[in-house]
Design a protein that fits this description.
Chain lengths: 165, 389, 215
């Protein structure tokens, strides 16, 4: 029995060495694919959720994302809906858009923001609700994950908090 | 506790240079292979960094083999990693965006590099809802190669090889406090209660439970002291200001001041939940450190040398430091009676300790060369670029 | 009729994971620190759930009795949220953190002293009550539906069934009795409870401060 455990121990040591050698060539790639295959997604509080629909405007479009409702009771995040104007380079200097969030033909909000020529300049968002689905915003820049406006690549991303239901 | 008695050392003579070189050869080949991919070899700085780092890692391994000691040489690598990683990282941040604070745009676009310290907090939310509570990206992208999947894959592969020894051979934060702990000749604050080593387990339990309740990485947001040397959310509210103050105080206290006072890795010993989490995986590895009670004279040299609090009186009596041992080699190198030894599970204790040590060092140093070495090389390349352009 | 019974129960069952996660930071350290065996853990869990039920039914009564326009206005919500969390933090610090010994069986203790020791009923009931008031979205949704009932018994029944639907998710907590085999667990659990309490204090304070300043 002691001999058997010794053999097993040294076999384990050899396998460990093999694992160390195989790591960068086999294991990392296999494990990465395995994790990717789990169907994980980034918390929509960070990612903004999946796109739901697009609204076409002359020269640009507005991507409406699915509303994000944090389920965690103690989360600081509030429910919000993300909208993205793209491409940012094609936007007029002043954007004022009435947005129908769910495509039911009724305007849910009017969003206003200026697009400075300097891409690094801060952005400010005003939102006027129409119908009670969202909360109003006044001159919001990067208040929180549920109320902000930011330039991300060639998109102007906004998040508008949803009114409690 | 018995007064430490200076005993005549019974350590074997150093290994011959020729034999040491022969044993180092596989590591040399490995290092050359790894560094040919680690940095951009088309530029002078990349080539110089690769060469320096390769020589550095190989030299340290040679010295570990020749002197039959582990801790001293491993510490040189570890402190270098702890110093160079933040330097390279911060330099990159300033080059990219002129600041260490994470702009919200980076979080929205999923460009935040994934940090392994977040792994324990991700498990419950991911298991229950398949949601990763970290503002990164699942798969690597051009702007974020350090995706969730990539970093978890690296961590998992490393854990199969190292177990808790990640904390001594992989963690690019631990070297900072290990460096501070090495500076004083004597500890001003001694005899910390050994039960304090359970604090990281409490932190682990609390952050895992709170992360599941809040769907936010609680440790990252509120406690991680290493945001002081990497990146942190912009301070734009009372909450982020409080978070900034907390991690600043924790860094100053546990990473700088306490190691200087105690000569211990106090952040690892008294806070790090990831270290506690890694301890669970020590059961996976076949390597451990044991104490041969037939040779031990209770001189407490090993306990004094241990940079965490895992080697207390009960552990020595029981014949080993248990699951929280990070296999840094401090206790083994300090033992003058060769009672504290490297060991392969299943084999007789102290039968072939040097064989066990080498069998451990090959995979451990291979990983250290690949992972830590590439970080060192990358940071060196950044530092050398203005000089060698 | 069956549909009326199924709706709250299913709502509770579908929300159970949220309840499991929300109660975890309080319940698991508490149970682990108690160091009880299977029966003792089941007793403590039952007392905790009893307190949680009282919280649920109390909220149902409030929602129905004053014809509350749920959800609450944001400022009221925030104040309630903040106060509950501060109360929860204090309860944890008083009951879960100190290493209280059990009273001797023959010791002469007042009912209050006996109730507030680790083996007493006040702690788990209070912790359960406060955790039950966490105002999570499923809880508020149930409150809206309860407030729409035509009678108070209807509202209470709705919440009772909602509560019953969540119960099955608490069964895994009985497994915490296995942790008593590890001698360090009560110490680790007490310190975890302290950290959770500090977090709730911060959370409650920031919420109250935000509500006070911004409305």
């Amino acid at each position: 029995m002691p001999r058997l455990t010794s053999v097993l121990g040294y076999t384990g040591a050899a396998l460990t060495a093999l694992a160390a050698l195989a790591g960068p060539f086999v294991l990392y790639g296999a494990f990465t694919q395995g994790i990717a295959a789990m169907g994980l997604r980034i918390n929509p509080v960070y990612s903004g959720g999946p796109p739901a629909r697009e609204i076409t405007r002359p020269g640009y479009r507005i991507v409406v994302y699915r509303p994000v409702v944090p389920r965690a009771p103690f989360s600081f995040a509030r429910s919000f809906v993300q909208l993205a104007w793209t491409p940012a380079g094609a936007l007029p200097r002043r954007v004022e858009d009435a947005v129908d969030l769910d495509g039911d033909g009724r305007v849910d909000l009017v969003a206003r923001f200026d697009v400075p020529s300097d891409a690094a300049a801060p952005l400010f968002l005003d939102v006027t609700p129409a119908g009670g689905r969202v909360l109003p915003l006044r001159h919001v820049s990067r208040g929180s994950f549920s109320a902000l406006i930011a330039r991300v690549g060639d998109r102007i991303v906004t998040r508008i908090p949803l009114a409690p239901r | 506790m018995a007064d430490p008695v200076v005993l005549e050392t019974t350590r074997p003579a150093p290994r011959s240079i020729g034999r040491s070189a022969l044993l180092t050869l596989p590591l040399l080949l490995w290092a050359l292979l790894m560094f040919s991919h680690a940095v951009d070899l088309r530029e002078n700085a990349g080539r110089a960094a690769a060469l320096l780092t390769c020589a550095f890692m190989v030299a340290l391994f040679f010295l570990m083999v020749r002197t039959r000691r582990t801790y001293r040489w491993r510490r040189v690598f570890f402190v270098a990693l702890g110093v160079l990683f933040p330097i390279g990282f911060i330099a990159q941040l300033y080059a990219l965006r002129g600041s260490m604070s994470i702009p919200v745009e980076r979080m929205l676009s999923g460009d935040t590099p994934f940090c392994f310290l977040a792994i324990p907090m991700l498990i419950v939310p991911a298991a229950l809802t398949r949601t990763v509570i970290f503002p990164g990206s699942i798969l690597p992208t051009a702007s974020n190669p350090h995706s969730v999947a990539t970093m978890i894959a690296v961590w998992f592969a490393a854990t199969l090889v190292l177990g808790k020894a990640w904390c001594a051979f992989g963690c690019f934060f631990g070297g900072i406090e290990e460096g501070f702990a090495a500076l004083p000749r004597k500890a001003k604050l001694r005899d910390l209660p050994p039960r304090l080593r359970w604090v990281p387990w409490s932190v682990l339990a609390a952050v895992v439970l709170l992360s599941a309740a809040t769907f936010e990485p609680t440790y990252c947001m509120w406690l991680c002291p290493f945001k002081a040397v990497t990146e942190f959310p912009e301070v734009r509210s009372a909450q982020t200001a409080i978070q900034f103050a907390i991690f600043g105080m924790l860094f100053g206290g546990l990473v700088v001041v306490m190691p200087l006072l105690t000569r211990l890795r106090t952040q690892c010993t008294l806070l790090c939940p990831f270290g506690a989490f890694q301890s669970l995986f020590n059961k996976l590895t076949v390597f451990d450190v044991r104490i041969d009670r037939s040779r031990c004279t209770d001189c407490v040299a090993c306990r004094r040398a241990c940079p965490t609090l895992v080697l207390d009186e009960a552990a020595v009596t029981a014949g080993g430091p248990g699951i929280s041992c990070m296999k840094c080699g401090a206790c083994v190198d300090s033992c003058t009676k060769q009672a504290a030894v490297w060991h392969v599970k299943g084999t007789p204790i102290a039968a072939r300790p040097e064989t066990a040590r080498l069998l451990f060092l090959y995979p451990a140093w291979s990983f250290a060369t690949l992972f830590g070495g590439s970080i060192i090389a990358g940071s060196l390349a950044q530092l050398l670029r203005p000089l060698l352009h | 009729m069956l549909g009326n019974l199924a709706e709250p129960a299913l709502l509770g069952f579908s929300s159970g994971l949220v309840c499991l996660a929300a109660c975890g930071p309080v319940l698991l350290p508490w149970l682990a620190a108690a160091g009880e065996g299977g029966r003792g853990t089941a007793r403590l869990l039952a007392q905790f759930l009893g307190g949680r039920l009282v919280g649920y039914l109390g909220f149902a009564s409030l929602a129905w009795a004053i014809g509350l326009a749920l959800p609450l206005p944001a400022r009221t919500n925030a104040f309630a949220y903040g106060l509950v969390h501060i109360a929860l933090a204090i309860a944890l610090l008083v009951f879960a953190v100190p290493a209280r010994r059990r009273p001797e069986p023959c010791a002469r203790l007042s009912i209050f002293r006996r109730a507030t020791t680790r083996s007493g009923f006040l702690a788990p009931v209070l912790l359960g009550f406060l955790t039950g008031l966490n105002l999570c979205p499923p809880f508020v949704a149930a409150g809206v539906r309860a407030a729409e009932r035509h009678s108070l018994p209807g509202a209470l029944a709705f919440f009772l069934l909602f509560f019953a639907g969540t119960l099955v998710w608490f069964l895994p907590y009985l497994g915490s009795a296995l942790l008593r085999r590890l001698p360090a667990v009560p110490t680790v659990a007490r310190w975890s409870a302290a950290l959770v309490a500090v977090y709730y204090l911060l959370l409650g304070g920031l919420t109250l401060g935000g509500a006070w300043l911004h409305g």
